[in-house]
């Protein structure tokens, strides 16, 4: 695609919460967001989620990975078949992430998806960055920068994604592009919903602490939090990124606590990760715009508001869609990749210079 005009692109995200696949279309030239199109969601069945859960932490070639990839591809094929978009940005499902060691692994074959859908697919977004010495995540920041322009943000603003893992992007919309010096700082903040979900599933067979009701009725364990926040991850400056299960010891540490206190402790761990993360940002932000499913956790939102001096609001308050934002990001990144524009840079993944990425597979 060598045309530089706007194109309708379709992006997908199968996130670390393992709940399902989001898809969304946007009209973009890879620099600006011109319009938003339809979105859709396809939940994983319990059986499918079990296959994915069983493959977490595995690398290509290991038993179980092919079955997980098939679950991911089939779900995407079903979901995308009737959605518009000339180009598809297919993130896949992260099974393992170890940028300083074995690399990063997103299950799902984009070439097979391109053949099944008869449309070009951009995929494997993270590998080039990791191969060049970057963290391979987060990648949504370039999209956050474009969104800040789209919603007319004035002055520094933070996008905070509370998915399975948390990540934030501090950005200054006055800068000349996302990778201009001083324009952004982005990194993973710590666990967000994943430990809470895992605890709720193990103790109650429930997918989540809905609205944060259980956490709101408990008292966080100071001892567990003190140990947790003493981990080197929090003292390390950005760039930094996380595997979904990087904090398995946190879930283990709350096993002896009563239910409500365990939930309160895990919720507070997510909140304090964000609070510590914001301390790395170059200047105070005017607002924290929260996206991802965690924005629906009223307890976490209330605790963030109590801890931070600036307003903490869901992205809906500025006219965006917090359920579709990550899928939209990979539509945007697909167009950037197809046009050779950078996806990552020193201020996001820590790669030495701004770098493009992704593989483009065309239907044969
Ligand atoms: N009403 C709610 N109350 C509390 N938590 C909620 C609610 N709705 C969603 N969540 C949380 O949000 C999670 C889903 O968030 P999201 O879809 O942003 O995650 P993801 O995209 O899988 O993660 P990541 O951004 O890490 O890849 C759910 O698993 C749940 O923990
Ligand atoms: C390796 C990987 O898949 N990381 C995800 C995960 O989910 C949230 C956080 O950890 C973020 O770093 C990233 O996703 C978002 C979409 C990103 O790349 O910006």
TrEMBL record:
Its EC number is 2.7.1.170. ATP binds at residues 15-22. GO terms for biological process: 1,6-anhydro-N-acetyl-beta-muramic acid catabolic process; amino sugar metabolic process; peptidoglycan turnover. Catalyzes the specific phosphorylation of 1,6-anhydro-N-acetylmuramic acid (anhMurNAc) with the simultaneous cleavage of the 1,6-anhydro ring, generating MurNAc-6-P. Is required for the utilization of anhMurNAc either imported from the medium or derived from its own cell wall murein, and thus plays a role in cell wall recycling. It comes from Meridianimarinicoccus roseus. Belongs to the anhydro-N-acetylmuramic acid kinase family. This is Anhydro-N-acetylmuramic acid kinase. It catalyses: 1,6-anhydro-N-acetyl-beta-muramate + ATP + H2O = N-acetyl-D-muramate 6-phosphate + ADP + H(+). One of its GO terms (molecular function) is ATP binding. The lineage of its organism: Bacteria, Pseudomonadati, Pseudomonadota, Alphaproteobacteria, Rhodobacterales. The keyword NAD does not apply. Pathway: Cell wall biogenesis; peptidoglycan recycling; Amino-sugar metabolism; 1,6-anhydro-N-acetylmuramate degradation. Keywords: ATP-binding, Carbohydrate metabolism, Kinase, Nucleotide-binding, Transferase. The gene is anmK. NCBIfam families: PRK09585.1-5.
């Amino acid at each position: 695609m060598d045309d530089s005009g706007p194109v309708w692109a379709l992006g997908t995200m199968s996130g670390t919460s393992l709940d399902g696949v989001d898809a969304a279309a946007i009209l973009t030239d890879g620099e600006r967001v011109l319009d938003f199109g339809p979105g859709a969601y396809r939940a994983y069945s319990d059986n499918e989620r079990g296959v994915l859960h069983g493959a977490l932490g595995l690398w290509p070639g290991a038993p179980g990975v092919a079955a997980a990839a098939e679950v991911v591809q089939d779900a995407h094929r079903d979901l995308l078949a009737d959605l518009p978009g000339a180009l598809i940005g297919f993130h896949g499902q992260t099974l393992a992430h170890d940028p300083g060691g074995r690399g990063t692994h997103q299950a799902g074959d984009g070439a097979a998806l391109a053949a099944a859908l008869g449309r070009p697919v951009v995929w494997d977004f993270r590998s080039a960055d990791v191969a060049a010495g970057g963290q391979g995540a987060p990648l949504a920041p370039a999209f956050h920068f474009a969104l800040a322009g789209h919603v007319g943000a004035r002055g520094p603003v933070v996008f905070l994604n509370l998915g399975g893992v948390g990540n934030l992007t501090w950005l200054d919309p006055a800068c000349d592009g996302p990778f201009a010096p001083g324009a952004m700082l982005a990194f993973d903040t710590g666990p967000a919903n994943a430990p809470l979900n895992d605890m709720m599933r193990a103790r109650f067979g429930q997918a989540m602490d809905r609205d944060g009701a259980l956490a709101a009725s408990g008292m966080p364990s100071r001892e567990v939090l003190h140990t947790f926040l003493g981990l080197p991850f929090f003292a390390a400056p950005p760039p930094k990124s996380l595997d979904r299960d990087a904090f398995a010891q946190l879930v283990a540490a709350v096993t002896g606590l009563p239910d409500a206190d365990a939930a309160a402790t895990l919720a507070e761990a997510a909140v304090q990760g964000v609070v510590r993360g914001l301390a790395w940002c170059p200047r105070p932000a005017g607002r924290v715009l929260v996206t991802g499913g965690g924005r629906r956790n009223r307890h976490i939102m209330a605790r963030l508001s109590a801890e931070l001096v600036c307003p903490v609001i869901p992205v809906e308050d500025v006219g965006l869609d917090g359920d579709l934002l990550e899928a939209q990001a990979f539509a945007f990144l697909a167009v950037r990749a197809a046009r050779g524009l950078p996806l990552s840079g020193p201020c996001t993944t820590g790669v030495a210079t701004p770098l493009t990425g992704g593989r483009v597979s065309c239907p044969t």
